[in-house]
Amino acid sequence: MTIAKALTIAGSDCGGGAGIQADLKSFQERDVFGMSVITVLTAQNTLGVHGVYPQTLEAIGAQIDAIFQDMGTDAVKTGMLFSDEIVHLVVEKLQQYKAKNIVVDPVMIAKGGAPLLQKQAMDTVKSRLLPIATVITPNLPEACEILGLDSINTLEEMKKAAKALRELGPKYVVLKGGHLEGSNEAVDILFDGEEYFYFTAKRIDTIHTHGTGCTFAAAITAELAKGKSVHEAVGTAKQFIQAAIEESLCIGKGIGPTKHSAYRLR
Ligand SMILES: Nc1ncnc2c1ncn2[C@@H]1O[C@H](COP(=O)(O)OP(=O)(O)O)[C@@H](O)[C@H]1O
Ligand SMILES: Cc1ncc(COP(=O)(O)OP(=O)(O)O)c(N)n1
Fold first, then answer.
1. CA 134–ligand 1 middle distance (angstroms)
2. What are 197's strand-pairing partners?
3. pTM (two decimals)
4. pLDDT score at 217
5. What residue ranges of the chain have pLDDT lower than 50?
6. Fewest Cβ atoms closer than 10 Å to its Cβ: which of 46, 76, 131, 253?
7. Which domain CATH number covers 186?
8. How far is the CA of 195 from the CAs of 51, 191, 229, in angstroms?
9. Which residues form a coiled coil (predicted)?
10. Exposed, middle or buried, 119 (CB in 10 Å: 0-12/13-18/19+)?
């Protein structure tokens, strides 16, 4: 019996809503065998990030080696990489093992405002990580940070930003519109270098959106691992995250997580 395999290289969210935990839940829901490399432990809950504890480069490198020297992967997602040294290491290892189907979620700031990527790492993300990506999935604040823009406020500005992001080297850009204000719709734009594709869903009125970015990018990764095209993968991931937000969970005192099993249980 064979099964598609996906690896997440990301931070741990002990609260279970984002990071490694959200990724593994999403892989499982999409019937993909999930594996993980933990870059950073966070002490985190629905109220915010209370501590960040990076793992040693030795520990991160050994986890990546263990997976690629034995099981291999059909797709890889990167999430919270935190420091310049970790970004360098992950890029080198992914190149060494010729990893395919690399989904880069350029995680920078948590919804509560906590920094998840040190400022010094930004140049390396741009010059080394984005160029090896098959797909990148920035949200609007991340796109602004990468491109040095003050804000992105309209779909036209999103299109321009997606084009500029693609010039940094990834094959596909999925620019997420979850943060676009004043719209009844949550619109994500996929740009493949030639055409723009719109993935549109009704905006759900809830505060419980902790981990939406991780969950969405993990669902894309799972579909790529199964051999789906990027367009198909983004379409499925959009339905997956929409269901997860529609049934999001009022757990904890702050911004609750989404329900990863919602799409499967419909
Ligand atoms: N309130 C919402 N209703 C429907 N979809 C949403 C909502 N908020 C975010 N999304 C969708 O969730 C996915 C993750 O987007 P976003 O929240 O922008 O990412 P991040 O968690 O990285 O900030 C995207 O597909 C986005 O369109
Ligand atoms: C460990 C860890 N990784 C990533 C994030 C950011 O997750 P995201 O899906 O962007 O959701 P929010 O945290 O912004 O709600 C995280 N918080 N922790």
1. 21
2. 190
3. 0.98
4. 98
5. none
6. 253
7. 3.40.1190.20
8. 42, 6, 15
9. none
10. exposed
In a domain, 141, yes or no: yes
- The answer to whether position 260 is within a domain reads no
Catalytic residue selected from 79, 134, 214, 256 = 214
Report whether residue 163 contacts ligand 1, using a CB cutoff of 6 Å. Answer: no
pLDDT (0 to 100) of residue 182: 84
Identity (one letter) of the amino acid at 190?
L
Residue 257 lies in a domain: no
Residue 242 CA, ligand 1 centroid: distance in Å: 8
Can you read off the two tokens belonging to residue 207? 């505060």
Q: Structurally, how many domains does the chain consist of? A: 1
Task: Give the pLDDT score at 183.
Answer: 84
Rounded distance between C-alpha atoms, residue 214 and residue 224, angstroms: 15
144 located within any domain: yes
Q: pLDDT (tens digit, 9 = 90+) per residue, 56-100?
A: 999 999 999 999 999 999 999 999 999 999 999 999 999 999 999
For ligand 2, is residue 79 a contact (CB within 6 Å)? Answer: yes
Residue 157 lies in domain:
5-246
Are 103 and 140 contacting, i.e. CB atoms less than 8 angstroms apart? no
CA nearest neighbour of 195 among 220, 154, 163, 241: 163
Residue 121, pLDDT score: 98
CA 2 – ligand 2 centroid, Å: 31
Place of tokens 């990301």: 10
